[in-house]
Amino acid sequence: MILPYILRLVCLCFASFFLIYAALSLAAWLLAPSAIRLGESLKPRFAARLLLVLRLSPVAVSAFIVSALCVPSYLWLEPDAKAERVGIACCFVALLGVALWVFSLARVLRAILVSLRYRRQCERESNATLIPNQQEPLLVVDTDRAMLALAGVIRPRVVVSRGVLQALSPHQLDAALEHERAHQFSRDNLKRFLLLLAPGIFPLSRGFAAMDRSWARFTEWAADDRAAAGNSQRSLSLAEALVRVARMVPSSRASLFVSCLIEDGRDLFVRVDRLLGLEAHAEKAPHKMRALLAGISLVITGLVVAAVMRPATLYSVHRLLEHLIR
User: Fold this and answer.
1) Chain segment 227-252, per-residue pLDDT in tens
2) What is the total count of domains within the chain?
3) N or C: which end of the chain has fewer CB within 10 A?
4) 144-182: per-residue pLDDT in tens?
5) What is the C-alpha separation between 174 and 181, in angstroms, rounded?
6) Residue-range definition of the domain harbouring residue 297
7) CA-to-CA distance for 45 and 77, rounded, in angstroms?
């Protein structure tokens, strides 16, 4: 296939991205079980960050390499010819790279539309109500179903049903709302957006489903810990709120960008046990591990920057691109 100068660059960018991303994603997928097991021995807040970094690193590193190495080497060293033949293999790999982003963006766009529709429905069917001990008004929906969630990405709002307000005592409601505020403080809905935006290993694949579920589980534990704030009475109130809401008729989750009080009923018993102090938590020096990860990140960043600044690196990358385009 004969392509002009700019289309060859686009083709090489998508092909390079797919090859690099596939390799890094496969490595992340192989590391995921070990990372999940390690996360269970760490503080939930740190475990969630570990899985988030592992999940988003392949796409971030791949995009950086393409933009910092592939594009400059092509623009600098490739002669500005009018047209040149591109191999079928390169075109096929580039199409796979395009498919990765098309399916990912379509999935995100659909989730955004559903989220906006859900947010407008909640605002239309609810009343902004300021309850005691709360600084911001809540969107109270007139239904008896179990609904207590943080909805939205940019400006999230707490949505609660009239049934939940009536079922929970003031202390239980305060603890449950602190749980949702913990999600808001950590920007968990924005992180959900980034996880949804990150492509799978291959188009239409769900290779990271286990990692995404574990991340959601750790974020719920982290929000529980932040809401309890080490207070045994608040922990008990939150545990009671979880049980009471779980006994109510559940409300359907109409948006992916919603952090509900109870994300997964299968994790309910573990969360209650943690809040009641019935489950031991062994932690493997999270401060030392955080310092180790930060040091590794700085070393890798320094090596990458040093490699990018060397002209020989661009020549090597250009030779690889020449092999790829054929």
Assistant:
1) 988 888 889 999 999 999 888 877 76
2) 1
3) C
4) 888 888 888 888 888 888 888 888 888 999 999 999 999
5) 10
6) 2-325
7) 46
